[in-house]
Amino acid sequence: MLRIGIDVGGTNTDAVVMDGTRVVEWVKMNNSADITAGITAALHQLLRQAGVEATQIGAVMIGTTQFTNAVVQRRDLAPVAALRLCLPAAQSLPPMVDWPEDLREAVGNCWFLAHGGYEFDGREIAPLDEAELRGIAGQIRDRGIDAVAISAVFSPINREMEQRAADILGNELPGAQITLSEEIGRVGLLERENAAILNACLRPLGARVVDAFTRALAGAGIEAPLYLTQNDGTLMAADYAKRFPVLTFASGPTNSMRGAAFLSGLQEALVVDIGGTTTDVGALHHGFPREAGAAIEVGGVRTNFRMPDVLSIGLGGGSLVQDGATLTVGPQSVGYKLVEEGLVFGGQTLTATDVAVAAGMAEIGDAEKVRELDASLVTRTLAAISSMVEVACDRMLLTPEPVPVLVVGGGSILVGDKIGVLSATRPPYFPVANAVGAAIAQISGEIDRVYALAELPREQALADAKRQATERAVEAGAVADSVEIVEVEEVPLAYLPSNATRIRVKAVGDLARG
Amino acid sequence: MAKELRTLTVEDIRALEIGAAILGTGGGGNPYIGRLRTEQLLKAGRTLSVLPLEALDDDDLVAGVGGIGAPVVGIEKIERGDECLQAMRAVERATGRQAAAVISCEIGGANSMEPMITGAQAGLPVVDGDGMGRAFPELQMCTFFIYGLKPAPAAIADEKDNSVVFTGTQDMFWLERLSRATAVDMGATAGYALPPMRGEFVRRVAVPGTVTQAIDLGYAVLLARRKKRNPVEAILKACDGVLLFEGKIVDVNRRLARGFAVGRATLHGLGADAGATLAIDLQNENLIAIRDGTPIATVPDLICMVDLESGQPITTEVLRYGLRVAVLGLPCHPLLSAPEALAVIGPRAFGYDLEYRPLRGSRG
């Protein structure tokens, strides 16, 4: 089966066509104002270059930053009614309390607190009150809001209350799009609720974007099923993506890392993605990006859903090299103006790229223009760059054992084949590692719950968590036989009796052939 | 006393969040939720004022308040908001006497914020001091009990209008045990209030100035970040602390014992400490720092870990391989290192066969 992976970035659309594990052909094109037309054009060119018919394509996977950008730029966001089941607890902090003011206003700052939610051990804080919820539904209807986000205290240990509230609201508000917090986030009420509200406000845009992608495929004559990549490097079917657009956040760095893993064949490695202004360093574990443990902000909002643990440093091909009291590289960068301002392009600004060209590490622009560069400056600059990357890599290592480093991205010419004691390689097709990462993505399911191990033996609790994670993967489109458990994490909870333990399990499987 | 009051702003509370986490010495819970709750009260027009310890009159009654439960529950089941206030009111009803001020029993971590919240709600000032000068895992480890506060009547309250008054408890250990068990039944996020304390007693036994100290530490970090200066140096300048070690965490060994996160973090030195190894033993909080086999700092002195670049306090939960940290030692207040205090919070009280050796501060 031929697959196409596409990365729709801010300025470029990258696309690859793959035959099993082989990259058949790739293109990199500037975006046009009309995303649909741009993707269609990229697909046409890709198919032409590869000599492949549209009917031979079995699946198309797209990674996109459009939803992240919508939140960051506060545009195309729908008004949301946020309902939290918590009373009498949790009324000291309303939903969206820690959001930037402009974003809170952009989604309408409409929220309700109602009775419900669970204690850590599964007891109800208060029973659900149907009459109360019908009253809230009436207010939501009066305000003309269609997008609803429902959260409940400790819903990760029991989804029932959020589901029942959704049923009640759904009856009162036919046509409402309801997001449940337990479908998205993990333990941590505010962060999980934030993710649910962001998802709710993105759903209308999600539908439009996914429809635009579908049209782009149709325009190129491709009838294969469409998938979007998630922040954890796995896929969701187009219909699922319409319901959970928030899960695409941070899929860009994830796709580069997954692509690098695939192209190199390595499961355990560091990936260094060097762009024009910044370098992202992430760690691969079992072939997947390691996830961040702490809360991550998106557009100024704290969330705790699945995100890769990426360390960004101010180093890129366009980084300024300044030789004052000490020599510095970055964080200032000429960015996309490198092709005008860099010395090798006839400009006046000394950049990291100029030094790499002077050192003979790259052939970009006119090497003659940097022939006079001071040799000591070149040596010291390369040492500084190497040290920055080395420190970043070292911070991302979780064990003292050395692992290989994979370097991808346009700025990857800045580093040699050694990063400290670690050996660095550039995998084939490194400029489009992100599109490759999209093309090879699998399907996942995840569960994150608190179990009382005094009541349920550990083996049974683990088995239950694994079964639920597997079910979620299959529900998301994985072939049941191919599903494997790739991550199990147990965290005992301090101060609590009954050996309360938080268990997190992730299952991954191959994409079912559509 | 009004003229001595200092009114706190939202910025002060943000600084307090960071400083309290530094003084948490790895434990004490994250003050984030408490900081947001305090901000909500300020935005709603409540006033938050801090009273110098020495401004307390002998007969002023002071209520020690705080949250009790499990930190991991606190990030999910957020407070109704007035749990501590209800506990304080329950004690007031039991004694028939009203509090004139509130005080934190534990400035390190989340319980730095609860007295702020209660004070703002009740219209009472918060005393500039606390019962630990840091964080400790259990109630009896505060100076109020160490120096003779009778453990009853104390109270605990939840969001469901349940309040339990302990009218008689044999000693502070029983109060800790019974209130802990009650807190778990209440869903592991409850507020407590200690028996009322006379101003004269609080002036004598509270660790002085710790609210201001935490706020100053927080501002040192915030300012250093804004000015792109070294936050570790800024922290050291803002307190009587010493830099014990700069290093990278190379191993974290952590398990759960008696309800606490117990373990050891091992660091390899960087810069001036290159070649040396530092081990930090922890039980929720960082308790002992051992350099190349020799203890160099012990509880109750403060052993604080902050991120080398950002100055962000590192709590026990986020410890992991690869973090580059500065380990700071802050000498504890003499109230914590007196013999009767060491019996409760010295190395031996935590199970170490080790004498307390006072840390020398930069100014001492």
What keywords describe this structure?
heterodimer, A: 514 residues, alpha/beta, 9-stranded mixed β-sheet, 24 strands, 32% helix, globular, B: 364 residues, alpha+beta, CV3147-like fold, CV3147-like
Structural commentary:
- The complex is a heterodimer of chains A (514) and B (364).
- With 514 residues, chain A is an alpha/beta fold.
- Chain A has 13 helices and 24 strands.
- In chain A, helix 1 crosses helix 6 (189-219).
- Chain B has two domains: 2-208, CV3147-like fold (3-Layer(aba) Sandwich), CATH 3.40.1610; 230-350, CV3147-like.
- Helix content of chain B is 31%, strand content 27%.
- Chain B contains twelve helices and 17 strands.
- Chain B has helices at 10-23, 32-43, 71-74, 83-95, 114-122, 143-146, 172-185, 199-205, 210-226, 231-237, 334-337, 339-345; strands at residues 6-7, 49-52, 61-69, 101-104, 126-130, 154-157, 163-166, 189-193, 197-198, 207-208, 242-257, 260-269, 277-283, 285-291, 294-298, 302-307, 324-330.
- The two termini of chain B are 32 Å apart.
Percent in helix of chain B: 25-40%
Quaternary structure classification:
heterodimer
Low-confidence stretches of chain B: none
Tell how many strands the DSSP assignment of chain A holds. 24
